[in-house]
Each structure stands twice: as structure tokens, then as C-alpha cells.
Specification:
This protein is of the alpha+beta class. It has 3 domains: 2-94, 3-Layer(aba) Sandwich (Rossmann fold); 103-120 and 188-322, ATP-grasp fold, B domain (D-amino Acid Aminotransferase, Chain A, domain 1, 2-Layer Sandwich), CATH 3.30.470; 124-186, Dna Ligase, domain 1 (2-Layer Sandwich). The protein has 10 helices and 14 strands. Strands 9, 10, 11, 12, 13 and 14 form a 6-stranded antiparallel sheet that branches. A 4-stranded parallel sheet has the order 2-1-3-4. Strand 3, helix 3 and strand 4 form a beta-alpha-beta unit. Helix 1 crosses helix 10 (307-322). The two termini are 13 Å apart. The model has no long low-confidence stretch (mean pLDDT 94). The structure holds adenosine-5'-diphosphate and magnesium ion (MG). Magnesium ion binds at residues 270, 282-283.
Length: 325
């Protein structure tokens, strides 16, 4: 098995980079944990690293499949780089292909697909130029976020805006700081959930994970921000404290979203649910974090299985998909 990844120490900070520039990258410990997990399934692991290392080694790479968790460095195709190279080289890999990764990294593109498929997602518009804003008639409060980032990059308490002046100011900051358009969405007051899914033909929806911030699951205006991730005020609650009816409803929506963008082997769908119990998909992560601090560890505990067995189940889905067994 090859293992491709981006780790925080590899990131070379450039002048003018935002403070959260390397937020998506993994901690080196995570790579060791995943390597151990794959090896516990009886496989041998070759650590490859980032896309540059892959390019250097691709001709002599002797692996049956690559477990890819690399986030890539820049642009909305960054997560697609390794999958596309592997596809060109005819090397199987775990997880979604380049098209799905690029589509979902650009939240505006993904929302267009979700809307076509009838998956609820907050009303939105895009601001590419602050001198040319139409607003699309959507009511405040709104949230202003970078169109193609992850790991809560560019999201702070200032992202929630209640008037046009603040919206333009925040959009201007996003455009200048992240060098991309701002996505402006209806802000969903209420609670937040994320649903991990694994598998292909008959994907398995894993237990719903609820987000708690400062000890509260009724989040109101609170958001999953970069500074809250760093300050440990976020917690995952599993089982989620919701009715069976709501749980079933968001799981159905999650599965529909997973299929709509053609996730493979594993993924995670993020939701906000308003006070009336209406779910909205915020985004789909075909390459969610596998860090032991993150959601997949939480659900392993809830399902009373080991973290290693979850990683191997993801891998087994990929092996089965390619008919390598
Ligand atoms: N429309 C929205 N309504 C309410 N909260 C939102 C909305 N969009 C984003 N958020 C908050 O910001 C966080 C990060 O947004 P998300 O779109 O999931 O981006 P990322 O890719 O960075 O995870 C969410 O987990 C949620 O707390
Ligand atoms: Mg998210």
C-alpha cells in the first residue's frame, strides 16, 4: 500500500499567507497512526508523502493501491492532484476521484449539484467583486466564507453578518486574503451535525455526530471556527441528542448527498438544522479528516470497534471496488 499525505511541517509559509494557511494539513502523528492501522490489517505500507514525492517516485512505485489523504497546496483542484496522477499511472487509490474532490472543494459548484438533486442546502450567492453585488434577495443574517476552503479556514465570529455594510467588508476580506470569491449563505441558526458514511454500492451511514460548542448543542449563532478548533471549545457528541425522526431525516439526506457527488469508499456530510428541524447540507467532504481527534474516532468508540478496524473497512471497500482481493 502506498500512503500519500500532506503534513503541517511540509508547508512553506509565504508572505501574506493567512494564519490558518496550513489548517487542512495533517499532523505527522496522524500519518503514523494510519500507517499502523493499515499494517494491522496485514498490509505493508510505503510512505510516499505529498504530490512532489509522488511525482518523483511514480515510475518505480511498486504498490497495489494508494491510501490517499493528501489535501494539496493551492487552488480548488488541490485535492484532485494526486488522484488524477494515480489515475493516469493506472494505480488504484482509496477514496473519491479528482472530479468529486474538485467539485466538492468548490462549495458553490457542489451546491449547484445538490440543488439539482433536491438536497436542501442554504440559499446563497457569490461575491467575486465587491463593486458588483446583487444579493439575490436573501435575508440577513448571512454567513460569508471562502468559496473553496476547508477546515473552517476564513471562518470567525465576523463571518456572520447582519447588514450589507458588514457583508461587503467581510467579502472584501475573504477575496483579498484567500484570493477567491466569497460564498454568501443564509445563516442557519440552530444545531449542527456531521454524518460519516462508508462504502459504495450500498453505502453504510454511520452514527450521527453532533457538534457541541462551549458545552452547548443548541448553537444559536455559534460556529465551528478556526479559533475554536485551536482552543478546544468544540466537542463531538455521539449519540446525537436528537429525535429518531430527525436522525432518520438527516441520514437520508446525507446518503443522497454522498451519492449525488459520487463519493467513494468514505466521506462525511456536514449539516446545520434550523429551529424547526429543517436540515441543510453545508458541504460534503469526500476526504474527511481521519485524525484520531476527529469524527471517525468518535464513531469508532460509539460503535465499539477499534479505530484500526474503521480504517481497514474503508480500505476494504476500495479493494473490493477494484476487485483486488
Ligand atoms: N450557512 C451556514 N449556517 C450556519 N453555520 C454555518 C453555515 N455555513 C458554515 N457554517 C459554520 O461554519 C463552519 C464551517 O463551514 P463549512 O461550510 O462546513 O466549511 P469548512 O469546509 O471549512 O468545514 C460550519 O461547521 C458551521 O459551524
Ligand atoms: Mg465543514
Amino acid at each position: 500500500m502506498g500512503l500519500t499525505y500532506d503534513v503541517k511541517p511540509d508547508y512553506v509559509r509565504k508572505k501574506g499567507d493567512p494564519e490558518d494557511a496550513n489548517a487542512e494539513f495533517d499532523h505527522p502523528d496522524t500519518i503514523e497512526v494510519i500507517k499502523d492501522a493499515i499494517e494491522s490489517g496485514g498490509h505493508k505500507v510505503v510512505k510516499i508523502g505529498n504530490v512532489r514525492n509522488l511525482l518523483r517516485r511514480i515510475k518505480s512505485l511498486d504498490v497495489d493501491i494508494v491510501f490517499n489523504i493528501a489535501e494539496g497546496v493551492s487552488g480548488r483542484n488541490r485535492e484532485s492532484e494526486i488522484p488524477v496522477i494515480l489515475e493516469m499511472a493506472g494505480i488504484p487509490f482509496v477514496g473519491a476521484d479528482g472530479l468529486t474532490l474538485g467539485l466538492t472543494l468548490d462549495k458553490v459548484m457542489a451546491k449547484k449539484v445538490l440543488i439539482f438533486e433536491g438536497v436542501p442546502t442554504p440559499a446563497f450567492f457569490q461575491i467575486s467583486d465587491i463593486n458588483n453585488v446583487d444579493g439575490a434577495g436573501i435575508d440577513f443574517p448571512l454567513i460569508v466564507k471562502p468559496k473553496q476552503e476547508g477546515s473552517s479556514k476564513g471562518i470567525s465570529d465576523k463571518s456572520i453578518v447582519h447588514n450589507r455594510r458588514d457583508m461587503i467588508r467581510q467579502a472584501d476580506w475573504v477575496i483579498r486574503t484567500y484570493k477567491q470569491p466569497a460564498l454568501v449563505e443564509s445563516f442557519i441558526t440552530g444545531s449542527e451535525f456531521t454524518i460519516p458514511i462508508i462504502g459504495n454500492e450500498k453505502p453504510e451511514v454511520l452514527p450521527t455526530v453532533q457538534i457541541s460548542i462551549d458545552g452547548k448543542t443548541n448553537l444559536g449563532d455559534l460556529c465551528y471556527t478556526f479559533s475554536r478548533i485551536s482552543s478546544n471549545t468544540l466537542n463531538y457528541v455521539c449519540p446525537a441528542r436528537i429525535t429518531r425522526g430527525l436522525d432518520r431525516k438527516i441520514k437520508d439526506v446525507a446518503l443522497k448527498a454522498y451519492k449525488a457527488v459520487e463519493c467513494r469508499d468514505f466521506g462525511r456530510v456536514d449539516f446545520r438544522v434550523d429551529k424547526r428541524g429543517n436540515p441543510y447540507v453545508l458541504e460534503i467532504n469526500p476526504l474527511p479528516s481521519l485524525s484520531t481527534e476527529d469524527v471517525f474516532m468518535t464513531i469508532a468508540r460509539q460503535m465499539k470497534v477499534s479505530y484500526n478496524s474503521i480504517i481497514n473497512r474503508i480500505l476494504d471497500h476500495a479493494l473490493e471496488r477494484y476487485g483486488i482481493r
